[in-house]
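Narrative of accomplishments. A recurring question from our advisory board has been how the design workflow behaves on a single, concrete structure rather than in aggregate. To address it, we present the structure tokens for one chain from the evaluation set, followed by the sequence designed for it. No filtering or post-editing was applied between the two.
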């Protein structure tokens, strides 16, 4: 089968489709949540009706619990349906500000508020007092936080990235060995694109890594200081002349201030070249320098 690599401008159709998906609300997860709630409702409804028709013998206390669970599922199902029906509209309203990061944050806050109100209504209808709700919420939050601490860390980092804005969507980012353009800031990972012309160059970076590794924001133009180390068999007889010749060769390829020196590591000689370069041209410039120097 022929691989789909048709280019639209500079971006392949496959890459363009992925970028467009990241710009709009993702209904796939929410649709699955609604389906699970609906199937759960049907299951409890059948059990309760069979019990009322005396086809099943269920103790009265257990039946009351099942009715309460069914009410909770109905409320959460309605809340999920409301979010699903209004999500596109809310997303468009928030996106008018032009700030993508703020739009993502407000969208998540809207969803959290709907579910929080739904849960509060469920607890109120089953007769739980305010004091008991506070106590139950504290115990639940403690156990829940311990069980999914990795998820909470990712969520808190996501919140920090959207509010403190160490980088924004469209900026070029360097974290560890990964460099690319930020195209999506998700709840659990950040998506960067190292090369818009190659489908496989999209990288997902877990949010917690932004607490563990240094971040370098290269700005919207993506200019970075690259370092190229070229192994040498030995130190030339006239190092200064060799370096001057190398500088002239590199100057024909790279614009901006370039530093070229020799370095000896573990008895091995290396030619170290530092130069400013655009992230999009990094691979091409490296290849050109290697062809000239070697």
């Amino acid at each position: 089968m022929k691989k789909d690599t048709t280019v639209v401008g500079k971006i392949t159709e496959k890459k363009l489709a992925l970028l467009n998906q990241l710009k709009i609300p993702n209904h796939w997860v929410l649709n699955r949540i609604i389906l699970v709630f609906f199937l759960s409702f049907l299951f409890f409804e059948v059990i309760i009706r069979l019990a009322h028709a005396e086809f099943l013998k269920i103790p009265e206390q257990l039946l009351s619990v099942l009715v309460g669970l069914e009410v909770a599922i109905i409320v959460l199902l309605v809340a999920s349906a409301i979010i699903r029906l209004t999500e596109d509209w809310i997303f468009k309203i928030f996106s008018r500000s032009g700030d993508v990061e703020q739009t993502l944050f407000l969208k998540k806050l809207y969803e959290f508020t709907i579910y929080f109100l739904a849960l509060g209504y469920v607890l109120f209808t089953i007769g739980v007092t305010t004091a008991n709700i506070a106590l139950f919420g504290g115990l639940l939050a403690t156990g829940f936080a311990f069980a999914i601490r990795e998820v909470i860390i990712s969520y808190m980092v996501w919140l920090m990235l959207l509010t403190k804005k160490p980088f924004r969507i469209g900026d070029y980012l360097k974290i560890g060995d990964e460099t690319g353009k930020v195209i999506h800031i998700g709840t659990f990972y950040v998506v960067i694109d190292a090369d818009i012309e190659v489908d496989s160059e999209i990288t997902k970076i877990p949010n917690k890594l932004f607490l563990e590794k240094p971040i370098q924001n290269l700005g919207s133009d993506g200019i970075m200081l690259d370092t190229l180390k070229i192994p040498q068999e030995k130190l030339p007889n006239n190092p200064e002349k060799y370096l001057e010749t190398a500088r002239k060769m590199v100057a024909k390829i790279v614009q901006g201030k370039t530093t070229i020196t020799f370095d000896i590591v573990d008895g091995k000689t290396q030619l170290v070249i530092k130069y400013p370069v655009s992230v999009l041209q990094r691979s091409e410039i490296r290849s050109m320098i290697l062809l000239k120097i070697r």
